[in-house]
Design goal:
With 207 residues, the chain is mainly alpha-helical. The protein is 55% helix and 8% strand. InterPro entries: TubC_N, TubC_N_sf.
Length: 207
């Protein structure tokens, strides 16, 4: 079991691990089981190394968090909805599709736990997984048709989304964006669930 997976296992048990020099602190202490204690002692060096280094995803996650904060405070959106908006701005994923989506998802979550905590790491990884599935398997947009309402775009203001889908701009933007977003995210969520990835709590209502 590699260190990120160990960290995810510990977090799933409701525990938080932090590093201070060469010491590990686990809280709350009354929830530490003998099995978890033995696991931490056996892999202490690996856990210290993982917690001491910022994750490779730090820059992208900081950008995502900033986008979510802007949507939350400037647009007055609930935090979970603001995170959905930030997900839509995630850059296109490159490389091969995961051979095992569940293992890939667990690794994405584990890499973010030290900086974000379990709940936020799961939401972040879920958004990336949704975006990745959608851009590889989602329905491709129809030229000259709004991806939201389906109306023609001839002679109207158009906003091109990061995935290449066009929607009406101006007064109709938010409505068309919302319709399109709910449609593709529902499709992606169903596909990810079938692949063995459980949707994090607090996501469904905002789709």
């Amino acid at each position: 079991m590699v260190a990120p997976t160990i960290l995810a296992t510990i977090a799933a048990a409701g525990l938080t691990v932090t590093a201070d020099g060469d010491r590990l602190t686990v809280r709350p202490k009354d929830r530490i089981t003998p099995e978890v204690r033995d696991l931490i002692r056996a892999r202490k060096a690996e856990l210290l190394a993982l917690l001491a280094e910022p994750p490779a995803t730090a820059d992208a996650d900081d950008d995502w968090d900033e986008r979510a904060a802007i949507a939350e405070h400037d647009a007055g959106l609930p935090r979970s909805t603001a995170e959905t908006v930030a997900d839509a701005c995630h850059p296109l994923q490159h490389g091969a599709e995961p051979a095992n989506w569940r293992e890939w998802f667990d690794a994405e979550v584990a890499a973010r736990i030290p900086a974000m905590g379990m709940a936020a790491a799961e939401r972040r990884a879920w958004g990336i997984a949704m975006d990745l599935w959608h851009r590889r398997h989602g329905v491709k947009p129809t030229p000259h048709r709004c991806a939201g309402c389906g109306g023609r775009l001839d002679g109207t203001r158009v906003f091109m989304l990061p995935d290449g889908a066009p929607v009406h701009d101006g007064d109709r933007f938010l409505r068309c964006l919302g319709v399109y977003g709910r449609r593709w995210r529902s499709q992606a969520a169903a596909a990810l669930t079938a692949l063995g990835i459980a949707e994090p709590e607090g996501i469904t209502a905002d789709r």
